[in-house]
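1st attempt posting a full record on here, be nice pls
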Amino acid sequence: MNGPVEKTHLKALSRAGLEAWVTGLGEKPYRARQLWKWLVPRGASSFSEMTDLSREFRARLEAAAEIRSLRRVSADRSGDGGAVKFLWECPDGNRIESVFIPEADRRTVCVSSQVGCGLGCAFCATGRLGFSRNLESWEILDQVIGVRRETGEAPTNIVVMGMGEPFLNYDAVMDALAVMNDPEGLAIGHRKITVSTSGVIPGLLRFTEENRPYKLAVSLNAVTDVLRTRIMPVNRKYPIAALMEAVRAYSRAPGRRVTFEYVLFAGLNDSREDAARLLALLRGLPCKVNLIPYNPAVGGFQRPDEGRVERFLEWIKPLRSPVIVRWSRGADIGAACGQLAGSGPERVDPPPMESEAPDISLRSDLARRRGARSQEAAVSRKASSAETGGAGSRKPGKRTGGGAS
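the predicted structure (as tokens):
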């Protein structure tokens, strides 16, 4: 007896692959374009939603194909500024997290690239999980589609800074970003997309050689090999000198400016000597620095107080590059930098549903916060214009928020 026919997983197909599959059914190519619009820009999770397709064609799709989606397990809202952490379940039961960070001038989604992470950074909750598997490109993309569906807000910025090391899942990450950037996909500008690496040099070199248009962020966090190896074991294979050589190669092309992420740990990497070494390391390099006071995730590390952070900021002022102190949002729900772990205490899974409805209370709360942010932004622009006689500009200094910009 023949078993059931395996259905085609449509979200796993590229736009060209989808067109080839549709024409293989004997349909016209324009049907593929209709289907693509439903799957990506509109984020449909069932064929019944595709109301501009004939019933006959939808019936054929039901028989031959399927639409897999990440299942929203929970959505935790932060009380400190509107960040929302989403816990998703993959079709195989693995769980990942992503974060939505709304601000006055942007709506950022921080996405994961792997289930867990094998790099074992000592201060990172994800590193404690170990590595399970790489995410497929559609699972990376579906985090953004899911956030848009749940919040009712279209993301403007993407940061690949969630669970996992993007350059160890290079092809899937780049395939997903291509769809996010595609004008017929999610239409997010390439300068609004940032890929963050812990310093995996082969991936960085490939990113450079392929002239990828997205922004690059490097998680540095220490300025000596001894300390960096202690807190980031990847440094054993890719030490600071080799990493900086690769970064400088990336920066040689016009218009490229790398963002360095430097997590500040009390009494560990926040001394005047550390600041002097950081200045020497970055001098002459077109860059930006995000100083991130440590977000408690694992034991053994402490966040420096605000005075210590301000002193470190003063010490690196001679760098003459933009330096931002990023007080990450979402720490109260485990959604800040270094806190994602793919699970959480006291979570209750909703019952499985064929097509899970968005959380209406979440949408209402975000809409209220969005109105407040718009008012704050308007007041800020008015005040800035009055002070400068024209359009205001963002200056280096403090900033609260999520992803790199």
